[in-house]
Write a structure and sequence with these properties.
204 residues; mainly alpha; Arc Repressor Mutant, subunit A; Tetracycline Repressor, domain 2; 2 domains; 10 helices; 76% helix; transcription cis-regulatory region binding; transcription regulation; HTH_TetR; DesT_TetR_C
Length: 204
């Protein structure tokens, strides 16, 4: 079946996610991808000049989708706490429904390749920027908020890696709620640390 170019490209990326997720980058050939997609190898090369280009675009697509989901979940929330809660819920729900994509983006195999690692870092940077926008603590510079945001992103990422190994142990929504509580009270601790240890007695 002949598809419009944009639709064919989306189809090829979807097939690539399945095959790369199952076999890994190095064990997958362009022949494998063309056969799985039901196209000839020349058709595949019309859209992607190499297997590496295809993989990099796939990582970018995965990252853009995850970032978009988080942005949409947090943009209309009225408080920092709600932004955190909805952001974590969106992140964990996305992982729950896109486990192969999450694993492909953040797997050890992906991180062994410098250009693939750079792609994963771009995703982490994009999400950290979203989180930093939602950290409202008086006196913290943008640079410091981004640094803290990377810690929060790392927490979510490592928690999800551990969780998807045994997803039946806890529902994604419950886990997201607990992690958001942990982060929220951690941020409140930073606020408290900024206050004087012994506030001045108003009677003096």
């Amino acid at each position: 079946m002949r598809l419009p170019a944009a639709a064919r490209r989306r189809q090829l990326l979807g097939v690539a996610l399945d095959i790369f997720g199952e076999r890994g980058f190095h064990a997958t050939s362009m022949n494998d991808l063309a056969e799985a997609a039901g196209v000839t190898k020349p058709v595949l090369y019309q859209h992607f000049s190499s297997k590496r280009e295809l993989f990099l675009e796939l990582l970018a697509e995965i990252g853009a989708d995850l970032s978009s989901v988080i942005a949409k979940a947090t943009v209309d929330q009225s408080s920092t706490r709600q932004q955190l809660e909805h952001g974590f819920d969106a992140y964990f729900a996305w992982v729950d429904h896109n486990r192969a994509a999450f694993d492909l983006l953040f797997s050890a195999g992906t991180r062994r390749e410098p250009d693939f690692l750079a792609a994963a870092h771009r995703v982490e940077d994009a999400i950290a920027d979203l989180v930093a926008d939602n950290i409202v603590i008086s006196g913290l510079t943008r640079e410091r908020r981004v640094l803290l945001a990377h810690g929060i992103v790392g927490m979510a990422e490592s928690t999800c890696r551990r969780w998807i190994a045994k997803p039946a142990s806890i529902d994604h929504a419950e886990l997201a709620a607990q992690v958001s509580e942990l982060v929220w009270f951690g941020l409140r601790g930073i606020r408290a640390a900024e206050l004087p240890d012994h506030p001045a007695d108003p009677r003096r």
